[in-house]
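Known limitations

Files may contain more than one protein. Parsers should not assume a single record per file. Below, a two-record file is shown to illustrate correct handling: read the sequence, read the token line, then continue until end of file.
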Amino acid sequence: MARPASSSAVSALALQPHMGATPARLAADIVGDSGSASALEKLNQAIGELKTLAVQPLLQSAINALNANDLQGAAEWALKALHQDERSGVSWYVLAVAREKAGDFAGSITCYEAALKLIPDHAEVANNMGRLAFRIGEQGVAEQLFRIYLARYPNHPEGANNLACALRSQGRFDEAIEVLKASLMADPNHAMVWNTLGTVMAEQGDTANGEIFFNEALRLDPTFAKARYNRGNMRMALGHLDEAL
């Protein structure tokens, strides 16, 4: 069951920014991991639904290699699957994950692009491509890909966070705030979203509301290091040096 946000955080959501000096660098970024346990479990399910039976054992071996952090082995098994069926979107997707985890971002994007064309419900692919595009500085491309993901999963906290980060990096603060507000109205229990909203406000010089949102993030997750770091920057900007330290 969703817990209500604190009254100060709810009030701050309705306020206009109070512009002031821009504080020190803040911590918030796009999130997601194409190689996480939950992501690989989704791939396992997709493999089980494949109509091309010849590629199933090859891709299962690739997933096993990813779970064992054998990135080279995972890529080799995915390539063997593609030799069997070059139009297997899941095979391209598995290869993309392996290359991304190995740090080959350019190669990974090429594989994700191939998967995007072949997988009917491609929102997850778009989200992964968006993260890579953001990493290499293509914020406009990342924005469009994150919008595909949010169209499929409206107000999803990860999707909202990632799109807001892409918008913030382009200086489109009002749009970023609206994306984050919509997500928080749907479910106010995500510390990550409150933290990112705090950074958007603070980068406009609104340290007062920024601190409120960082406080809310820490209320929900007292171990959230980025929010604690950001709150310290807010207190330093306000001249409360002992509290900042």
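...continuing to the second record:
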Amino acid sequence: MTNIVSVKNLTAIKNKRAVLKEINVEIEHGDCVAVIGPNGAGKTTFIKTINGLTAYSQGSVNIFGNALNQEIKRKIGYIPQNNNFDALMPISVREVISIGFTSQFGIFKKFTDFDKKTVEDISKGLNIFNLIDKPVGQLSGGESQKVSIARVLAQNPKLILMDEPLSNLDKKTQTDILNLIDFIYHEQNITMLIVVHNLSQMPKCCNKVILMADGKIIDYGKKESVFANKEFRNFYNL
């Protein structure tokens, strides 16, 4: 299998404290990897480092076999925590989804009829077409998250990074987003890396798990193997 992400001896310092400590991990094409662990484990910093949003002190991060650059960033879709839009933001859902094309092709891309139809098709596929001309500032938390996912899909990424995509959502909306993640993974075979806070919020499509604590990777492998780890059971009181 081809390695999509290759991280070697990665260390990141923040406020004179090591928040990542000699991380080594490789993620293969087609994997859906959950990143779990207690609060303060370094999970968010880890995926932000992969996406180039957080600097690191030593080590290397290679994506698709190369060091991170602008061209590679266009192939990475990123969905942060708490992705609610500003209530005063004067743009529509259609325009936000279209930003995905801008991320891929640059701000000077001229939108074609095909692009406009693709935006509508994505919104229909995610069951948000009824919102397409609504101002994003008027959306609920679950609707905002679906729009964020739609924007990422418009980008046509080869790797998707999600940071606790279910945070602050009600149970029904969490179920909707989990089903949506599973659908995207199985339909498009996109490699995914998903930070998960509660084990109940882990998408079914996750076939591998990274267990982190104190800035280190404690275990990494198939879900069943990591779940059998004594340290995993201690962290989650199982």
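Parsers that stop after the first record will miss the second one. For reference, the second record is described as follows. The chain is about 35% helix and 25% strand.
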